[in-house]
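I am hoping you can look over what I have pasted underneath with an eye to the fold:
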Amino acid sequence: MTRYDFDKPVDRRGTACVQWDGVAERFGVDGLLPFTISDMDFPSAPPVLDALRERLAHGVFGYTDWRVSGFREAICGWYATRYDTELDPEQIVYGPSVLNQLSQLLRMWTVPGDGVAVHTPTYDGFRKAVTGLGRELRGVPLGDAAALERELARPDTKVLILCSPHNPTGRVWTESELAETARLAAAHDVAVISDEIHADFVHDGHRHLPWTRFAPGGGRWALISSASKAFNFPSLNGSYGIIGDPGERAAFTRRMETGEGLASPSALSLTAHIAAYQEGAPWLDAARGYVAGNLSLLAQRLNGAFPALRWTPPQAGYLAWIDLRALGVSDEALQRELIERERVAMMPGAVYGAEGFLRFNVGCPRGKAEAGAEALVRALTRLV
């Protein structure tokens, strides 16, 4: 079995890296140790890097057509082996990013002033996309089925954005929950956009079920995703969508290729996706196991110091969503301690509409995760 070295630090400073080079812009102080934006400090999977090197060595980067690249075939193969789900390759579309696809679909299925339902706490990218387009963001507490039904029943709620698995909590939706969501959306004629970019990082003991298993044959629904999150190449751009209805799919493609001018995707994105989905599974499984170790370490440190927290790691992803309300610590005071005394950067829950929470990225070498966990415990100890 191949061994991968996730312990080795990689210096990301000076690479236009949002997490490391952009920390001063977000937190007002430079030189902080960051545990922030959702990318990892690991190099991508070796098969991805090898495929990129080979493509670069070719030296010609002319216009591309994703339909003839093997891109769709790689996605179908991944879903068949990873999720026991058969896809129709003709239903697959390409987009420069998941959020770009989301914005285009919102333009298709809503008009300014329409309501867009999301679960709370809410990934801040959703809020920016929805409100930036002049739509009304309508929060539904995570796990509150009655609130979801009330919201979807409102006549001007036109779209539900389903984050599956959920960001920032890392929750994996159950089969019954997804089936009920599909039933409610159909009953109230609400379109569903399922963002599944975190699906490939579901931890052992849990199972991701793609929205295609629950969606109707036609109508307004889309699954949007990318290999870039799990395999850590978001700056290469590139994503894919699955749109079941032929008319809606044609309208989306027309909008992308004419209104948005997306006639030629990034060759490197196509290369990375194909390599990741065809050859990257062993690396991904090793990375998930390593991150699970980081999450376990964090749980031991937090619960050892503060038993009242009873914190459990997320079901998916490398983002630790920590409920600190039992300690009675204010977000502002904690951020001051973390930034000014501990010199670390972690995302306050208020970014996602949840005061009293913290989002801590542990997609990093163990030594860095340990340093962050100890810094957090020290900061909380001074405040409690």
Observations:
- The chain has a mean pLDDT of 96.
